Amino acid sequence: MSRFNILLFLTLTITTISLVTSQVPPEKQFRVVNQGEFGEYITEYDASYRFITSPNASFFSRPFQLLFYNTTPSAYVLALRVGLRRDESLMRWIWDANRNNPVGENSTLSFGRDGNLKLAESNGRVKWQTNTANKGVTGFKILPNGNIVLHDRNDKFVWQSFDHPTDTLLTGQSLKVNGANKLVSRKSDMDGSDGPYSLVLDKKGLTMYVNKTGTPLVYGGWPDHDFRGTVTFAVRREFDNLTEPSAYELLLEPAPQQPGNNRRLLQVRPIGSGDGTLNLNKINYNGTISYLRLGSDGSLKAFSYYDPATYLTWEESFSFFSTYFVRQCGLPSFCGDYGYCDRGMCIACPTPKGLIGWSDTCAAPKTTTFCSGGKGKTVNYYKIVGVEHFTGPYVNDGQGPTSVNDCKAKCDRDCKCLGYFYKEKDKKCLIAPLLGTLIKDANTSSVAYIKY
């Protein structure tokens, strides 16, 4: 055996022995059972919750706390909450471990000698785990920033919840192209499983998608912004060298620049290209405890926590679809599944007989109407002048130049096409498999043709 091979063998042997001997000591192991009384206060999603306690571990790091909660009977999620008891209904759930695999009564959360944190049903069936068995884990803790970590004897993180976001980013938490690169919304307040909206980081930018038809459609974000592979939600004091109170900025920060280029650019345009940090908003208090959430309705909002307040301690500190950022009508769900929106108000429901009063019952045509009849099925359209599709600004109003007849023929042939939007000035065609909120724009040459 060569000298190199001997050294390699010894190194691997020492590493293996080190991992085996680096185990969780008995005084740090725990096993808690999901049973007993519920907490006395109402929380977000109108959820019931149970506290987790163990003499060997703390599940609280002010103002973060790990608990079980449920919105439907016998379907519990292990989750991190932010907020104190006196906040009552303002406590927020900002991370779920098992959102797609809820557990029942008497389920257990355990952290044993092998260093694996796992959630199992009462019959022992594992529903969620960190997969850190025999990887050198020696301890569990919740950090002051809300990051749940499993660490080794040198306090190095072996696993952290910041690497497994659900629909929320906490201050200092990142999305990475080569790692956890997206947020996924809940289906609804009552159903915490994966919903149709996502916020995805790739090499092109940070893009919001809706997928209700099997095809992801872009509806927001910064699809042409270079984040250099990482984007971090951050809150920074405007002037770090001041002792007097100052404003705090809510930012989306890219990976650090390469040495030699330290320029910092604040860009408030939600659509377009550019380099540097995105400035979401500015608040006049210390908003260090903040989070950015992709809502079940597709909204992207930040909320900031002001601890000294005795009432309304949470404030909506940023909203992508708002009067000050991107128009509210741009949110696909703003007027439900199908509504006519003007200046932030849902004003009508388009029908083959014209516009009628808007209500929650406004419904777009269903693709099954056009897919079930086979070839040769007659297709009719009703026309709406001066209206844009929610994807228009992000796909340059469609493809073209082409004629309106060719655009119609393309939609005719596609049974999943619910309508098409034709830009008369630029002769561009946008095929729509999903309609959502229609945006009124009197100054546009965009005309919608909706199947019926």
Automatic annotation (TrEMBL):
Q: What SUPFAM superfamilies would the database entry show?
A: alpha-D-mannose-specific plant lectins
Domain Bulb-type lectin per the UniProt entry, residue ranges:
44-163
Q: From the UniProt annotation, give the residues forming the signal peptide.
A: 1-22
Keywords assigned by UniProt?
Disulfide bond, Glycoprotein, Signal
The cross-references to PROSITE patterns, in alphabetical order and at most eight, read: BULB_LECTIN (PS50927)
One GO cellular-component annotation of the UniProt record comes to: plant-type cell wall
PANTHER family per UniProt: BULB-TYPE LECTIN DOMAIN-CONTAINING PROTEIN, EP1-LIKE GLYCOPROTEIN 2
What is this protein's name? Answer: Bulb-type lectin domain-containing protein
